Structure formats: structure tokens, C-alpha cells
Automatic annotation (TrEMBL):
Signal peptide start-end: 1-18
Lineage of the organism: Bacteria, Pseudomonadati, Bacteroidota, Flavobacteriia, Flavobacteriales
Entries under InterPro entries matching the protein: Beta-barrel_OMP_2 (IPR025665)
Name of the protein described by the UniProt record: PorT protein
Organism per entry: Sediminicola luteus
Keywords linked to the UniProt accession: Signal
Source species, domain of life: Bacteria
Length: 232
């Protein structure tokens, strides 16, 4: 997780220093004056789960999550409100895979459940920027989103008794992040880091109320860090 954050920050610092100059040549001087702006983003993510247990039986009974690096890709539509505020719609695809680990189950095949998630995300965000400084401009961004998990298995008749962990297909989240706009000669490049926090319970419990996989879970929520590179 630390490397996921530190590497983009080092890259961001290098790009900012490259753009900083006492008397810079101003690139794309009228770029931010358009009422509508379009672009796309590429990036990567790391997702986790937050569990709300019905009964906390001790740290040795907590569910372990083996996280991996996924990828993001999507489009951007931006509407200018004023010099400092923009409303953004960023539909995108976010893929990630997580493995849940259950300690204490006698059968080795029952101890692991792999959850492959493909989220189609529809966020509506407010971007708040500072005044442009030469060829760069810091910003913060936040808002809400609706996500559809294509790998949820919500409608499956199988559950963990046959090896299928089920999640809800439709979910709600809020997003908060920061980044910097860098104006090159031909396009605007914007690296950013964003936290994504689901507020809707994703769990579809097993049919057996005493299931060792879902019986002690009251709710579970995705949370993640997204690193995006935007081109406009």
C-alpha cells in the first residue's frame, strides 16, 4: 500500500519541478475557459474490504484480505462553473481481484475465496482548483458515485457451500482526492490520488444463517485507493 502511494507522489513531484520556471512559456492558455471539456483517464487501484461483524470473537477469527493491484480506464466530461469550480462526470471501468482468507476451517479448499470484481462506475464530482500558477494548478476533488459490479454473482443460486461468494451488483460510494493539472504544449495532463469508500453493504449472505463464511458478517464495504492519469 505504501509503494502504491509513494511512487505516484515521486512522479508527481518530478513533473511539478519540470513545469516550474521563473518565466514559463504559458501552454494552452485558453484551455480552462471552455464551458465543456472532454478527456480520458488511465490508472490503477488497490481495494480492500471493511467488515462489520455481528460478534467480534477475537483477532484470530477476523477475515483476512489479500489485496492486489487492479486497473482503471474511463472517460471524462467536464462542465466549467467558474475559474475555480468544475463539475465532472467520469464513467469508467475498475477491475480488481481480492482473496478472502478464513482461518480455522478444517477443509483447506474452504479457507480461501477469490472475488474478482469489475465495477462500472458513474461518479459525479466537484473539482475545486487554485488559481493557475504558470503551467500547473493543484486541485481537490470529491463527490458521490454509483457502481455496478459485473462480477457480483448476486443472482447465482449457488453460495459458499458450493464455492461461490456473492456480492450485491449495485452500490453507492463517495470519493475524495487531490491532484495537479500540468499544462503541456499539446494537452493537459493531470495525475491524481483518490480514496473511494462504499456506503452500501455489498454482502449477499449464504442461505445457511450459521455459514462459516458469512454467518458472522453484518455488513461489508469496499474501500480503495485509485491513482489516475488524466489526459484532456
Amino acid at each position: 500500500m505504501k509503494r502504491t502511494i509513494v511512487i505516484p507522489l515521486l512522479l508527481l513531484g518530478h513533473l511539478v519541478m519540470a513545469q516550474f520556471n521563473e518565466k514559463p512559456v504559458i501552454n494552452l492558455e485558453n484551455e480552462d475557459k471552455k464551458f465543456l471539456n472532454w478527456g480520458y483517464f488511465l490508472g490503477f487501484n488497490q481495494m480492500d474490504f471493511k467488515f462489520d461483524y455481528k460478534e467480534h470473537l477475537g483477532p484470530n477469527t477476523d477475515i483476512l484480505v489479500d489485496k492486489s493491484i487492479g486497473f482503471n480506464v474511463g472517460l471524462i466530461g467536464e462542465m466549467r462553473i467558474n475559474e475555480f469550480l468544475d463539475l465532472r462526470f467520469e464513467p469508467g471501468l475498475h477491475y480488481n481481484s481480492r482473496i478472502l482468507g478464513y482461518r480455522g476451517l478444517p477443509n483447506e479448499n474452504d479457507r480461501l475465496r477469490e472475488l474478482k470484481s469489475t465495477y462500472i462506475n458513474f461518479p459525479l464530482l466537484l473539482k475545486v482548483s487554485t488559481r493557475r500558477i504558470g503551467n500547473w494548478k493543484p486541485f481537490i476533488i470529491g463527490g458521490g458515485s454509483v457502481s455496478m459490479n459485473l462480477g457480483s454473482n448476486e443472482d447465482s443460486l449457488d453460495d459458499n457451500s458450493t464455492g461461490t461468494f456473492r456480492l450485491k451488483k449495485n452500490n453507492f460510494a463517495y470519493e475524495l482526492g487531490f491532484g495537479i493539472d500540468l499544462y503541456t504544449e499539446y494537452f493537459k495532463f493531470s495525475p491524481s490520488i483518490r480514496g473511494v469508500f462504499f456506503i452500501s453493504d455489498e454482502l449477499v449472505p449464504d442461505e445457511d444463517p450459521n455459514s462459516p463464511w458469512t454467518g458472522n458478517i453484518n455488513a461489508m464495504y469496499t474501500r480503495g485507493i485509485f491513482v489516475n492519469f488524466t489526459f484532456e
